[in-house]
Design brief:
Layout: H1 12-22, H2 25-33, E1 39-40, H3 46-51, E2 57-62, H4 67-82, E3 88-93, H5 98-103, E4 111-116, E5 119-125, H6 130-138
Parallel strand pairs: 1-3, 2-3
Antiparallel strand pairs: 2-4, 4-5
């Protein structure tokens, strides 16, 4: 197995040509497909993305002015990448979707809620570590 360093600014088509020369095309694409970041949910997409999801959903309730929210944002993206295909990780801006935040009693941010089969199952309040979020989430994977 060869390890190839590719500049982040290189286009996918250029990367494809380079990678096929090394016979590693499938491995690189697999790694690329497994890289994920949390998506965005709002009042218009809430029902479809959260309540009607066939996999567990982690929702990060946040706001751009919230320092602790910005601290855990990379953790949410890491979880999205770690559990790609098993969990949907989403971020809801409470300033833009205040109705959803009010409906679920969000009084402090960041708040992370886990939904499974359309029901709220767990709530984690505050800037917590990755292990806390993983422990809460793993209860609902594979239901």
């Amino acid at each position: 197995m060869k390890i190839v360093s590719v500049p982040a600014t290189m286009s996918l088509s250029v990367m494809t040509g380079m990678i096929s020369d090394f016979g590693m095309f499938a491995h690189i694409l697999l790694l690329d497909w497994n890289c994920a970041v949390a998506g965005v949910v709002n009042e218009a997409t809430w029902d479809t993305l959260v309540l009607k999801s066939d996999i567990p959903v982690l929702v990060d309730f946040w706001a751009p002015w919230c320092g602790p929210c910005r601290m855990i944002a990379p953790l949410i993206d890491e979880l999205a990448s770690l559990y790609v295909g098993q969990v949907r990780c989403l971020k809801l801006n409470t300033d833009e979707s205040a109705g959803i935040a009010t409906k679920y009693g969000i009084r402090s941010i960041p708040t992370v809620m886990i939904f499974n089969r359309g029901e709220k199952k767990e709530t984690v309040i505050g800037a917590v570590g990755k292990s806390t979020l993983k422990t809460a989430l793993e209860k609902y994977i594979g239901w």
